[in-house]
């Protein structure tokens, strides 16, 4: 489960959806408060809704029961942006019993959802001297094989890959000396090549 669906392209395999809603709108089954403010989307897998939210400069990761909106658990994982629009931006990427998150400060976090605890935490933006624009970091992690992909930008590197199991650095790309943008990477296939694509402030990269 991840940002914009299985292929990160906004195309979903669901069938028999309504062509239009009734005039009075769909029935509201439940609503909830207390999980923090955010701009992110939810991810749902194995009968659990996952979402991020910000409270008092701390970003939280919440698990919610879809049938009744019951809050199953709620844990802090990172720091919110320092300047503008401090609410969370990252949509959780969930695979098996692991969830991957990027905080507003550029921390990459792996959460063991079965144990409800952080498995590893890397201050990626700080470690790789990332550069961002006035709205800071708005990226949702991409998983490729055994790697977590993040785009810090800056003068040290442009894109990095961390080990999904440990958070150790697997590779870093060369720098093109640009700030990161408010976008998330996608994986495409062209011929026999698999290409990770993202946008920076001034460049489209692959």
Structure report:
This protein is mainly β and 206 residues long. The protein has a single domain, classed as Lipocalin (Beta Barrel). It is 2% helix and 38% strand. It is built from one helix and 17 strands. It is globular and about 50 Å long. It comes from marine sediment metagenome.
- Biggest sheet features: 4 strands, antiparallel
CATH architectural label: Beta Barrel
Task: Report the top-level CATH class.
Answer: Mainly Beta
Question: What is the typical, i.e. mean, pLDDT?
Answer: 94
Structural class given helices, strands, pairing?
A: mainly beta
Measured by DSSP, the beta-strand proportion falls in: 35-45%
- Strands, total number: 17
Helical proportion, percent range: under 10%
Number of domains: 1
Q: Report Rg.
A: 17 Å
Write a brief caption for the model.
The protein has one helix at 124-127; strands at residues 43-45, 48-55, 58-64, 71-79, 93-95, 98-102, 108-112, 117-122, 142-144, 147-150, 153-154, 160-163, 169-172, 178-179, 186-190, 193-199, 204-205. With 206 residues, the chain is mostly beta strands.
Give keywords.
WD40/YVTN_repeat-like_dom_sf, Quinoprotein_ADH-like_sf, 1 helix, four-stranded antiparallel β-sheet, mainly beta, Pyrrolo-quinoline quinone repeat domain-containing protein, 206 residues, Lipocalin, PQQ_rpt_dom
């Amino acid at each position: 489960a991840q940002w914009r669906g299985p292929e990160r392209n906004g195309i979903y395999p669901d069938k028999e959806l309504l062509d239009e809603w009734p005039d009075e709108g769909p029935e509201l089954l439940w609503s909830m408060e207390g999980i923090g403010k955010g701009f992110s989307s939810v991810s749902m897998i194995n009968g659990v809704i996952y979402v991020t939210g910000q409270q008092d400069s701390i970003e939280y990761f919440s698990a919610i029961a879809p049938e009744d909106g019951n809050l199953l658990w709620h844990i802090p994982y990172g720091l919110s942006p320092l300047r503008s629009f401090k609410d969370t931006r990252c949509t959780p990427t969930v695979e098996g019993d692991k969830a991957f998150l990027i905080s507003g400060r550029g921390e990459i976090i792996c959460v063991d959802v079965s144990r409800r605890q952080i498995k590893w935490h890397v201050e990626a933006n700080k470690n790789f001297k990332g550069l961002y624009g006035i709205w800071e970091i708005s990226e949702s992690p991409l998983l490729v094989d055994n790697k977590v992909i993040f785009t810090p930008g800056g003068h040290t590197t442009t894109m990095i890959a961390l080990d999904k199991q440990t958070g150790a650095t697997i590779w870093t790309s060369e720098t093109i000396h640009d700030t990161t943008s408010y976008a998330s990477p996608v994986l495409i296939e062209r011929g026999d090549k698999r290409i990770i694509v993202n946008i920076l402030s001034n460049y489209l990269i692959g």
